[in-house]
Amino acid sequence: MIDFLRPHWKALTLALLAVTGEAATDLLEPWPLKIVLDYLLQSKPPPAWMSVMIGWIGQDKLAVLNFAVVAVAVIAIAGALSSLLEKYLTTSVGQWVMHDLRRTLYHHIHRLSLAEHDEKRTGDLIGRVTSDIEAIQAFITTALLGILTSVLTLLGIVGVMLYLNWRFTLISLSIAPVLFVVVYSFTRRIKRASRDVRKKESELVSIVEEVFSSIRVVKAFAREDYEERRFERQSLENVEM
How far is 225 from 29, CA to CA, in rounded Å? Predict the structure, then answer.
């Protein structure tokens, strides 16, 4: 996979910067509320740098509120632009990677021997060229950088928590090993179920391909009802999984 991603390293680098910006805006979202609570409702003196910025707007409590509103708008716009840039870049890279993977896989399938083709079902090969490649594209465009965004946001949250109160942070993190064990257990089950689903889907595609490629024979022997029942049984197996 690295070989397919390497030609797009510039776009991926920009996407990584966009993800970092998106994570930063997620962390900054509660900040305007802190301004309102601390420096407007409780009348605490703002820090020097904030006093300078608020002074550009005014000197009263309304200026503090206006500053908080401007901060909300700036953070929201920055987050939206970062998210838009990240999605555009990852979608573009995902499309190119999907194209390169399909071309490489199609070339490989054509070079297989006849004996290997006899061992493999047509539906399985079709599924690998279509649905499996699409799953990889979905991983690149949604899961890969989405996971990275979540990790960066989580690290930022932990950092802020440690800064505010390290004792409570350690108490909160004490349940992390338990959560890891639970998530790992469910992840293994999901992986097994996903493999079974892909296998059943390839069998379903094989049935469709076999029937449509020999539709004249099916109609000549009036086997429509039989093939419909066979398809329905296979489809029900997918549902019951």
Answer: 60
